[in-house]
Amino acid sequence: MPWDNKSDNQNPWGNGSNGSNGGGSNGGGSGRGPGRGPSRGPSRGPNRGNEPDLDELLRDLKARFNGLVPGAGGTSGLLVILAVFLGIWAISGFYRVGADEQGVVLRFGKFHTQTAPGLNYHLPYPIESAVTPKVTTVNRVDIGMRAGDDRRSAGVTRDVPEESLILTGDENIVDVDFSVFWVIDDAPDFLFNIQNPTGTVKAVAESTMREIVGQNDIQPILTEQRQTNEEQVKALMQATLDSYNAGIGITQVKMQKVDPPAAVIDAFRDVQAARADQERARNEANSYANRVVPEAQGEAVRIRRDAEAYRAQTVAEADGEATRFASIYTEYRGAQGVTRQRIFLETLEKVMSGTNKVIIENNGSGVIPYLPLDKLNARSTSQETK
Predict the structure, then answer these.
(1) Residue 244 pLDDT > 70
(2) Are 220 and 175 in contact (CB under 8 A)?
(3) 133 near 141, Cβ under 8 Å?
(4) What per-residue confidence (pLDDT) applies to 24?
(5) Which DSSP letter does residue 360 get?
(6) In the chain, what are the domains?
(7) Res. 139 pLDDT band, cuts 50 70 90
(8) CA distances from 172 to 167, 207, 213, 239, 385 (A)
């Protein structure tokens, strides 16, 4: 039968008499039958003619539940409701752990066990609860700088001098901006042993960087020792966090900027330029020395060998002259006249061999023609060569 029939007995929500509050003539009735609606308006005051009756709604809900569960009523209805509630409560213990997460089950707020990724179950709240922190997400903490607040200045950082200015071992000041990247190594330690993970990592990173920088001079920090300092800071940070049982693993420490303070950076650059010029001049001098010194050493060796050869030659000639003089002296003692004449002629030959000669008779009356046999022999030898 269609629902628009106004008969109380055919109302799909139950018998219309169940909604009455007294007799049918009472103005506070259900108002479902024809002619009853207008009688409710005046008795409820102004602007309340369309408002539902709370008691009537409760009775309707009860009637609907009785229709869904035959025989439900009184204590049995409460048991059914309790059973439904317990079922929903038991199902609420299922939870899922993602591939990048680690499940941690708490029993009455205390760590109980760890669970692997996938669908898992724990006793429903408030007996047990589950926490699933992401253990593969790489977190980042910046020290000495902050990202710009303005969206239009994306990628622009703001310097934080109270964090970045560090005293070096040679009593200079260096401006260091660096970032620390970390992940969760042990979820229970991470959840229960530290209260503020980001703040802890930041404090440990800042104190560790100050310790490492304070052990070195400014020049190596600005140039070739940057990577070494990063490794030292990473190792010392990890040791400190492990001593706290923080459950955090440091993956990388990256120095973003290492400069002198802004107030003296121009003068420092001038000093750096002067040091570069000094290094260049030193390299040029070393190059010149490497080229000249071997040449000088070679020349010295040559001169020394020439001197040794000259000495050997002179000594040998002196020895020969001495031997020849001794042999001549022996002959001179045996035939003094002949030997004296021969010495005279040999000496005269040696002296006159390199001069132009003119032969004159003893009395000086004329010049004897001289035939230069030595020159003629030399000329004929040169012509044969040609």
Answers:
(1) yes
(2) no
(3) no
(4) 36
(5) B
(6) 8-77 (no CATH), 94-131 (no CATH), 143-260 (3.30.479.30)
(7) very high
(8) 6, 18, 10, 28, 87
